[in-house]
Amino acid sequence: MPHPSTSPQMSRRVVLSAASLAVGASSAVLTACSGDSGTGASEPKTGGTLRAAFAGGGADETIDPHRVNLFADAARAKAVYDKLADLGTDMDAVPRLAESWTPDADLTVWTVKLREAVFHDGGPVRAADVLYSYRRIADPEGTFRAKQDLAPIDLEASKAVDDLTVEFVLHHPLAEFPNALAAFGAYIVPEGTDTFDSPVGSGPFKFVSFTPGSEFTAERFDDHWDGAPKLDRIQIVVADEESARINALLGGQVEYAHDLSATTARANEGNDAVVLVASPGSNMLGFAMKTDRAPFDDPQVRQAMFLLCDREELVESVLSGRGQTGNDLFGLGFEHYAADIPQRERDLETAKALLAAAGVQTITLDTADVGSGFTEAAQIFAEQAREAGIEVEINERNADTYWSEVLTEGQIASYRSGAMPIASHISQRLLTDSPTNVTQWHHADFDERYLQLQSTADEADREVLYQQIQQRLHDEGGYLVWGFADWIVGTLPSVHGVEQAPANTLDWARFDKVWMD
Amino acid sequence: MLAYAAKRIGLGAVQVLAVACLAFALVELLPGDAAVALAGDQPDPAAIARIREQMHLDEPALARLRDWLGGLLTGDFGASLVSGRPVADLLATALRPTLVLAVSTLVLLLPLSIGLGVAAARRQGRWPDRVITTFTVGLYSVPEFALAVLLVSVFAIGLAWLPPTAVGVPSLLAEPAVLVLPLLVLLARPICSIARLVRAGMIEALDSEYVAHARRVGIPERRVVLAHALPNAITPATAQIARTADWLLGGVIVVESVFVIPGLGTALVDAVNARDLPVVQGIAVVFGATTVLVNLTADLVAFRLAPRLEVAR
After folding, report:
1. Hey, is the C-beta of B160 within 8 angstroms of any chain A C-beta?
2. Which Pfam families would you find in this protein's record (chain A) (predicted)?
3. Tens digits of residue pLDDT in B48-100
4. For chain A, does the N or the C end have fewer beta carbons within 10 angstroms?
């Protein structure tokens, strides 16, 4: 969900990231002898205002929870609103406003029981509010982000059984339907809401004020169904530059700084003035090979790429060691991840032989400055490929149009993905009609296997299918996944209860469980 | 002088219009449009087509330019493609912090730089002059971002005397402490360049025939310097002061991003990133208008200070 960036911002970032290193290093020295870190928390305390710095989108930011796009939008929305479910740290759906969900035998009708919860204006959260919210998101004329996740629901046929029971009728069987209830932006608003000047939700904090591109304030909602927050207030402030966020934290202007770089983390490792919370597995990094065209339509060539890649070197140099090694599969550490498949190791000799047999001499690698470490990873990988005897031409594309271009163009491209359930990764990227099938993976039998998975009610049987699907992707898929970057946030030592959690999951930016000394 | 001013204002209006058209054309030439930029790493072609249709990006470029210029004549800057907010509102919000910074910088800059320049010129070749000259040349060679980072790490984080950024501050004037470091960074280079121009102008003026004459008729030295030499000495610096004012009113992006000040520079970067054409054009018009206005003012001031210049035209 990060904000798409262009070159002017990038050139500033290059300059400023070097600058932030200098600041971080000097402050680490200057504060090295101050008090203890205080992570060993004692009794939770009530009260206080927590200020959190996020990157923002300027004056065009919106508070409409169905229009969330940036991390800052999502953090604001989850303070004021609830979803029916949210994703746990390993991407399993965790009930929120929904108390339970029960499918019928063929997984096409799901009955969702709501818990007793109230909106900030005192009105109860009812089945009608849920259906209104979902219909607003699914509006064919609209461009709401969660629309695609809710597409399996036949909202015409779905109905409110009573005030606390919704019956969702689906277009096709969907064993992982609860993931849809946790979709990014699928918040529940009171029936009829269409303006958000003074937003009313059922979330842990009540809206107080919002200035786009600058600040957002919300105060404790005592009647929240999940218990009142400890903090009196939260304030989300916008600081686009990472260097500004860490400076504001070091200067005590904020208590929480979102999205810090590995460089900043390393510079502040011994600094007692800040606590770094690194969440493993948040950001998948890799290369996407187009499996429908030369040279990567040959599975042997894809195999060679898998084998020539030195994953440890990439993690060490691109992520400053702050990450984990990938095994060409999405979702390390998540529910259903095929952890039993042995880690692929570098084997240059086999790679050379495979490439020679296929007659591949040069490849073109697309990259762009659209994420931290993107171009660096491309350079290092190109060097590794040269060791296997092929020439790699790096094609640096325009950052704004990169994602849209590499969807259809080129041979192999730098790629990354945020956290999502493994089923969502498959349905969005690996089916013949998937909207962002960047590896151009079109296999009718694979589609069928996935449909079978979604129609299998028995969890053990479904698990077997998950393993088979991932085994196939590991053997001959188009994603070369070399690593997973940690997601790093910084807090002052006085802040407690900030959990390790991949971005956009339940415990990420979750301020209702945070307290301060 | 009035006819001259009227002619300059007319020319300025044409220049602003040309800037607006140029901005439109340049953004049009960029690869991708607002729809592609908005879609980011979720480039679902169906979603992109839907966004494009909603934003009327499927209409011809000339029709969009015509509609926009038509609106401009009635004072309507249009609405942001991304949020739908009126561009005029957006500009007003972003202009405020930029104005606060620019005006405070100029208010401090003029007396400081002119004072330093005069002081150096009056002691030409002696140690105060050498100190001022060394200092101005040295400081001038430090780029803004380096100075900003240095000041933040020493005064905000190391010594904790001043806030490192203006993050979350509702209005810069409400908490003047946040202005100190940005002002130091913004002042550093202009002080140097203007002080050196004033020094050179002052040395020349003090050496001139009319100053020698004023001294001969017994006018006190103070009055000779301030009333006779100074107006002539400042004239060469007015163009540089105008350039500085223009630079400040354009929103200095480096300073805005290091210190988290949501001014015009930040607004422009955000709008270009989002391919938010009406906002980019609105800012281009504002920049064009300020450049024209500032230069017009500078010319009129220079004319007032040294009327003989008009004869040369």
Report:
1. yes
2. SBP_bac_5
3. 787 777 767 777 878 878 877 788 778 788 777 777 788 888 888 888 889 89
4. C
What pTM was computed for the model?
0.81
Quick one: which of B94, B81, B266, B84 has its CA closest to A196? Answer: B84
pLDDT band at A103 (very low <50, low <70, confident <90, very high): very high
Q: How far is B51 from chain A (nearest CA, A)?
A: 7
The H helix count followed by the E strand count for chain B is 15, 0
Compute the average pLDDT of residues B182-194.
88
Instruction: For residues A415 and A304, give the distance between their C-alpha atoms in angstroms, rounded to a whole number.
Output: 18
Q: Compute the count of residue pairs across chains A and B with CB atoms less than 8 Å apart.
A: 187
Name all contacts of B68-71 with Cβ < 8 Å and 24+ positions apart: B68/B24, B68/B278, B68/B281, B69/B17, B69/B20, B69/B21
Is the domain defined by A281-485 classed in CATH 3.10.105.10? yes
How far CA B204 is from CA of A337, B220, B303, in Å, comes to 80, 19, 19
Contact A301, A358 (CB under 8 A): yes
Q: Distance (Å, rounded) from C-alpha A158 to C-alpha A177?
A: 14
Please, what is the end-to-end C-alpha distance for chain B in angstroms? 12
Is B36 part of the contact surface with chain A (CB cutoff 8 Å)? yes
Residue of chain A minimizing CA distance to B153: A23
Nearest to A404 among B32, B152, B267 (CB): B32
Q: Is the pLDDT of residue A259 over 60?
A: yes
